[in-house]
Amino acid sequence: MGLAGEAAEIVELLRAEDESLAEVVADLPYHGPCTCTATCINLLTAPFGSSGSTMMQLERDGMDVIWLSLDPCRTTITDIEVLDGRDLGPYAQRSD
Predict the structure, then answer these.
(1) pTM of the model
(2) What is the pLDDT of residues 7-27, one digit of tens each?
(3) Strand arrangement, sheet containing 77-82
(4) Residue 84 in contact with residue 43, Cβ under 8 Å?
(5) Of 47, 41, 37, 48, which is closest to residue 82 (Cα–Cα)?
(6) DSSP result, 18-53
(7) How far is CA 83 from the centre of its chain?
(8) By the number of CB atoms within 10 A of the CB, which of 51, 57, 68, 88 ranks highest?
(9) CA angle at residue 35 from 64 to 87, to 5 degrees?
(10) How far is the C-alpha of 40 from the C-alpha of 14, rounded, in Å?
């Protein structure tokens, strides 16, 4: 599906919840996969360490499929964690 597919799905799920964050998804930068641990699967949309403590869980058919970390003001998404095991291809590959 690739990163564009995930972005479209995030927008769809956010709009289903009438969430204004759907409007920022298209402009999110990509800072690569998180390197906090060897097994972290988060994709960074802000520099490492920018996340606040707020998480938003997006569901499909009653199951969490994506978790979003938000900045402290809840105005943008700082990282994305795709939970359903899909292959994100080169976007999730580490360069180290």
Answers:
(1) 0.80
(2) 888 999 999 888 899 999 989
(3) 42-44, 77-82, 63-70, 54-60
(4) no
(5) 41
(6) T-GGGGGGGG-----B--SSTT--EEESS-TT---S
(7) 10
(8) 68
(9) 45
(10) 23
